[in-house]
Design goal:
seven-stranded antiparallel beta sheet; single chain; globular; 9 strands; two-stranded antiparallel ribbon; alpha+beta; 172 residues
């Protein structure tokens, strides 16, 4: 009899899975490589990238995604071309924060699925607006940053703004 009971216990220990282990905590995001250039919260978001941030240090850029709960999802890094870096520097220097006439950028301001908020940093100054509801003093800067963002978040060649992306680049 003891042999039969120990065989049954062994069967249950092997065949019946234990309680699920608590889920691993979300990974911490890597530290930003430099000053923040752009932040998007809740605009055209996918679950794994409900908010995103773009950082820059010289020609290096870093794109971080966070899920809808605010947990870090992934990080892409790349290197701007010399001309894209120079164009970005030029647009940052010429942004006219006092030119506040509203602009319905690409006719999409107020589109039903364009909720959320976009923030651009011009030096230490943060400028926030609804998606595509810019003001005229930042349109050219926004277009330059958006072109960089499109490439670093998509990871697909051919690149016009990026010289390269780091291995492991994850699209969306």
């Amino acid at each position: 009899m003891p042999n039969r009971i120990s065989s049954t216990i062994c069967f249950f220990l092997i065949a019946v899975p234990g309680c699920p282990a608590p889920s691993d905590p979300a990974p911490e995001p890597p530290p930003p490589i430099g000053p923040q250039l752009l932040e998007i919260e809740g605009s055209f978001a996918i679950e794994g990238c409900a908010s995103s941030r773009l950082y820059r240090d010289g020609r290096r850029v870093q794109y971080q995604c966070f899920d809808s709960q605010g947990a870090f999802s992934w990080d892409n890094r790349g290197t701007l071309t010399e001309s894209a870096s120079a164009a970005l520097d030029s647009e940052l220097a010429s942004a006219a924060l006092d030119a506040t006439t509203p602009v319905n950028h690409k006719g999409l301001c107020g589109a039903p699925d364009s909720g959320g908020e976009v923030s651009l940093w011009v030096g230490e100054e943060r400028v926030s607006f609804a998606p595509f509801c810019l003001f005229e003093g930042i349109v050219a800067l926004y277009d330059q940053v958006a072109a960089i963002l499109f490439e670093i978040e998509g990871c697909e060649e051919p690149f016009a703004q990026l010289e390269s992306v780091d291995p492991g680049c994850r699209a969306y």
